[in-house]
Amino acid sequence: MYRTGDLGRYLPDGNIEYLGRNDDQVKIRGFRIELGEIEARLAKHPAVHEAVVMAREDVPGETRLVAYFTPASIGVVPDSGTLRAYLQGLLPDYMLPAAYMQLDALPLTPNGKLDRKALPVPDSSAYALRVYEAPVGEVETRLAALWADLLKVERVGRHDHFFELGGHSLLAVSLIERMRQANLEADVRVLFGQPTLAQVAASVGTAQRVEVPQAKIPTLNRKRRI
């Protein structure tokens, strides 16, 4: 048997579904990810014609999955939130791209192959931004500045979703630590359960610290022998 390096799976009807190439595997935050599988899932969206996913490290030490796609119809272009919601029902969270960038056509080399080096850096429109509403109050304003700096986005509205903007578990821990340094106490569990800026800001100051009592070493009364 000859190994082609292609990935696939048998369907209940006996047909084989193509899932991409085995050599497109990357490792991000400890998870091994098949880029071809994400591409195959995304390309099945009715509004997507072609799809390519790559791992980018535009910020040193921070690798993110970025999806590039061409629309199936010029008049119908899905937004980032729609594509993310579509993939959420098909893939685990660690395989969800942080950004979705629409292209008129995928860049090709002179040989007609995909030119991954020519794929552009995603801009703010590639992220799942919600209808912008400015932060309200000092806490939301300070928190929005922390999010923007950590997630490398231009601005953050009070209804924006931490994970839709490219956040993940490691960045969540970093955010909570930065908040503590800025005297904005919050529980990391709130960020996972209520991940919009307004929700996290509302929880600031309600986090309870768990005090661990110092262990006392018992004193042993021993009689000295003469």
Write up what this structure looks like.
The protein has 226 residues and is of the alpha+beta class. Residues 207-217 have low confidence and may be disordered. 24% of the residues are buried. It is built from 6 helices and 7 strands; from the N terminus they run E-E-E-E-H-E-E-H-E-H-H-H-H. The longest helix is centred in the middle third of the chain and has 15 residues, at 137-151. It is elongated. A 3-stranded mixed β-sheet has the order 5-6-7, with helices on one face. Helix 3 crosses helix 4. The protein is 26% helix and 20% strand. The chain has 2 domains: 22-127, GMP Synthetase, Chain A, domain 3, CATH 3.30.300; 138-203, Non-ribosomal Peptide Synthetase Peptidyl Carrier Protein, Chain A. Strand 1 and strand 2 (16-21) form a beta hairpin.
Which tags fit this structure?
226 residues; alpha+beta; GMP Synthetase, Chain A, domain 3; Non-ribosomal Peptide Synthetase Peptidyl Carrier Protein, Chain A; 2 domains; three-stranded mixed β-sheet; two-stranded antiparallel ribbon; 7 strands; 20% strand; elongated; AMP-bd_C; Long-chain-fatty-acid--CoA ligase
Q: How many structural domains in the coordinates?
A: 2
CATH superfamily of the largest domain: ANL, C-terminal domain
Average pLDDT, all residues = 82
Number of strands: 7
The helix/strand series, from N terminus to C terminus, equals EEEEHEEHEHHHH
Our measurement of the CA-to-CA distance between the termini, rounded to an integer number of angstroms, reads 85 Å
**What is the CATH class designation of the largest domain?**
Alpha Beta
**How does the helix and strand content classify structurally?**
alpha+beta
Largest sheet: 3 strands, mixed
In the CATH scheme, what's the topology name of the largest domain? GMP Synthetase, Chain A, domain 3
Query: Looking at the structure, what is the overall shape?
Result: elongated
- Per CATH, which architecture of the largest domain? 2-Layer Sandwich
Strand fraction: 15-25%
Number of helices: 6
Which percent range fits the helix content?
A: 25-40%
Strand order of the largest sheet: 5-6-7
InterPro entries: ACP-like_sf, AMP-bd_C, AMP-bd_C_sf, ANL_N_sf, PP-bd_ACP
Keywords: Ligase, Phosphopantetheine, Phosphoprotein
GO cellular component, one term: cytoplasm
Protein name: Long-chain-fatty-acid--CoA ligase
